[in-house]
Structure formats: structure tokens, C-alpha cells
Design a protein that fits this description.
Strand order of the largest sheet: 1-7-6-4-5
Number of helices: 10
Largest sheet: 5 strands, mixed
Number of strands: 13
Order of helices and strands: EEHHEHEHEHEHEEEEHEHHHEE
Distance between the termini: 21 Å
Structural class: alpha/beta
Bound molecules: oxa(dethia)-CoA
């Protein structure tokens, strides 16, 4: 049976030039490298300059992805940006990037707000539009300048987050409906709004007219994350009829190295197959998965044909997974 799939044809990322190490953090709040490293796995994070916005870092990632796909901005039918740190309240960051890239009139643009699950949500939506035949080529970006909504005086949160942008280009291709196909093989999204208060900003456009700062009930989020990330990964593997042994890489959201380790164990995957980038990025919310994917392809770890499980969980709560063959 022939069907339409979305193949992943281009990858790009960008991390801002400024780096803050754990020792730098210790000069700002009452913390130390030992606490941050052992509790989270984070060693350093990238932080955008004051005049560097989500659209700026996205644009670099977007151009890198176009180059790697060997296509032009004119070929894009859609740009979708997953972010909780939009440049302006409206229009979308995707619209700004579209204007700067010089896409043709008619290229559709929108942002998605699903926090750390944002990239998996955006990928799922783009994949569905491609499979329905509504579009042929989509750029899916996950980008955040979380430093702008971080309370730099709160040691409970400020050591955890970082900035970055990643972009992936999807294009319609033919598949046979088998796990051996290339591209997006399965996706699954979840949400449970009863956890709204457990991970949120202290304000927003309608409530306070300010973006607010990130707050969370870390222990509750941790417990939920381990189960949610595992559930989403298991679901997409089951949909495609593959098991842990068939998987080349697990790429989980990077919020805490201990969460990642627990998820890897629950899925019976050896450490060598579990991608960990949190040491140099910290938690970059929606940017996490596309940045890690682009980095791991660029450094030769992930190769063409590899089967990769993406799984993410974040504020809402939202969570979801995707199984992709590169
Ligand atoms: O991206 C969305 C998903 N997010 C997550 O998945 C995050 C999930 N949660 C976590 O990763 C962890 O819960 C944290 C890393 C946020 C916290 O780790 P924890 O092991 O749960 O620590 P805790 O919150 O129980 O805090 C333990 C102690 C507290 O001191 P007392 O009350 O025991 O004296 C904190 O005040 O550690 C203290 N503490 C710190 N100490 C040094 C909290 N932050 C720091 C810090 N440096 N930066």
C-alpha cells in the first residue's frame, strides 16, 4: 500500500554565544556546581544577549536547516514555531521568521504553545497536514529565550533553563506504511490541564500584562515526567510495531539527567542509545529536541536510516512522542 509520509530532509540549530557555567551561577545565587551537576546533570547553559530575540536565534537555525535540506525559503508551504517566548504577543514568531527568510506570499505561519512538548506537538501537526495533502514542505522550529522569563534571583529555577533554537524540514514522500519507511512513522499527543498550576509562569498578557517568571513544583513534575515520557515513547513504538531492540536512539526532553536515566531504564534501553545534551544546554523547553537532533546528526552519532524515538513532557501538562526514521 502506498501512502504519504513526511520525510525529514533538513536540520539546523543555533545556541547563543554567551555561556553561563555552574560556577557563574554560583556567583549569582546561593548554589554550587556539585548541587546542580548531581541533581540535574547540567554543567552550563547558553543565554541570549539582551537584544537577541527568539526570532533571531530561530532565523539562524532556519537558514542552517534550509542549507542542509538544499532547498530555498520559497519552497516552504508552512512555518510552525513551538515556543513560549514569542518576540511579541502578536503576530506570531513564525510570521516574523517568514518575513525575514523571504518566503513567498501564501506560506502559512503559526506558533504553537505547548511548552516543553511544543516541538513534538508542532511536528505532529505539520506531519498530519502533509499526510492529508494540504501542504508538501514544512519548517518546524522549536525555539526559546527562556532567560527572558527566568527569575535570576531564584536558585530553585534559574539554574535549570537555557536558550536555543532548532529547525527541522519535513517534505512529503511516498511510503509503504511499514516501519522500514523513512520519515515520521508514528506520533501521539497527550495533555491533562488539571496540572495547570504545577508548572507555569507567574503572569501573562491577560492576567498581569507581564510575561512573568517560570515557577514549578519540581518534585511533582519530576514524577509525572518519568511516566509521561515513557508512556509516549511506548505508544509510538507500539503503533509502528517496533520494540526497544529496534530503536537506534531515544531522544527524550532534557529537563533533568535523572529523569532521562529513569526513562531509559523503563524502556530497557542501554545508556549508549539514550541521547543526553542537557550538560551543555540545560532545559531549553521546545528547542530541546530539534537542537539535540541537529547536533547529533552534525556530529555523526545519528545516521541516515536510524530509528529515533522522540518524547517530551512540559507545562499544561502536555506530553507526546514521535517515532522517526532519519
Ligand atoms: O521542563 C519541564 C519539566 N521539568 C522538569 O521535569 C523538572 C523536574 N524537576 C526536577 O528536575 C527536580 O525536582 C529539581 C532539579 C527542580 C529539584 O531537584 P530535587 O532533588 O527535587 O530538589 P528539591 O526541590 O527537593 O530541593 C532540595 C533542596 C532544597 O533545600 P532544603 O529545603 O532541602 O534545605 C532546596 O532549597 O535543594 C535546595 N535547592 C538548591 N540548592 C542549591 C534548590 N535549588 C538549589 C540550587 N542550589 N540551585
Amino acid at each position: 500500500m502506498t501512502l504519504i509520509r513526511s520525510e525529514l530532509i533538513g536540520f539546523g540549530h543555533y545556541l547563543p554565544a554567551k555561556v553561563l557555567t555552574n560556577d557563574d551561577m554560583a556567583k549569582m545565587v546561593d548554589t554550587n556546581d556539585e548541587w546542580i551537576s548531581t541533581r540535574t546533570g547540567i554543567k552550563s547553559r547558553h543565554v541570549a544577549a539582551e537584544n537577541e530575540f527568539t526570532s533571531d536565534i530561530s532565523l539562524i537555525a532556519a537558514n542552517n536547516a534550509l542549507k542542509s535540506a538544499n532547498i530555498s525559503a520559497q519552497d516552504l508551504d508552512m512555518i510552525i514555531v513551538a515556543t513560549v517566548t514569542t518576540d511579541d504577543t502578536t503576530p506570531s514568531t513564525a510570521a516574523k521568521i517568514s518575513g525575514k527568510l523571504g518566503t513567498r506570499s501564501g506560506t502559512i505561519t503559526t506558533d504553537i504553545s505547548a511548552a516543553c512538548s511544543g516541538f513534538v506537538y508542532a511536528l505532529t501537526m505539520a506531519d498530519n497536514m502533509i499526510r492529508l495533502g494540504q501542504i508538501k514542505t514544512a519548517m518546524v522550529i522549536g525555539a526559546e529565550t527562556l532567560s527572558k522569563i527566568t527569575d535570576w534571583t531564584d536558585r530553585n529555577t534559574c539554574v535549570l533553563f537555557g536558550d536555543g533554537a532548532g529547525a527541522v524540514i519535513l517534505r512529503a514522500c511516498e511510503g509503504e506504511g511499514k516501519a522500514s519507511d523513512k520519515g515520521v512513522l508514528a506520533t501521539k499527543l497527550y495533555a491533562d490541564g488539571s496540572h495547570y498550576e504545577q508548572l507555569k509562569t507567574t503572569g501573562g498578557v491577560s492576567t498581569t500584562q507581564k510575561a512573568g517568571f517560570i515557577t514549578m513544583d519540581g518534585k511533582e513534575v519530576f514524577k509525572f515526567a518519568v511516566n509521561a515520557l515513557t508512556q509516549a515513547a511506548e505508544n509510538v513504538m507500539e503503533q509502528a510495531g517496533v520494540s526497544s531492540e529496534d530503536i537506534d536512539w531515544l531522544l527524550p526532553h532534557q529537563a533533568n539527567a535523572r529523569i532521562i536515566e529513569n526513562v531509559g531504564k523503563k524502556l530497557n534501553l542501554p545508556d549508549e542509545k539514550v541521547i543526553v545534551t542537557i550538560d551543555h544546554t540545560a532545559n531549553t523547553s521546545a528547542a530541546t529536541i530539534p537542537v539535540a537532533l541537529s547536533e547529533e546528526i552534525a556530529n555523526g552519532h545519528i545516521k541516515k536510516g536510524d530509528l529515533v524515538v522522540l518524547t517530551a513532557m512540559g507545562a499544561g501538562f502536555t506530553w507526546g512522542g514521535a517515532l522517526v526514521r532519519i
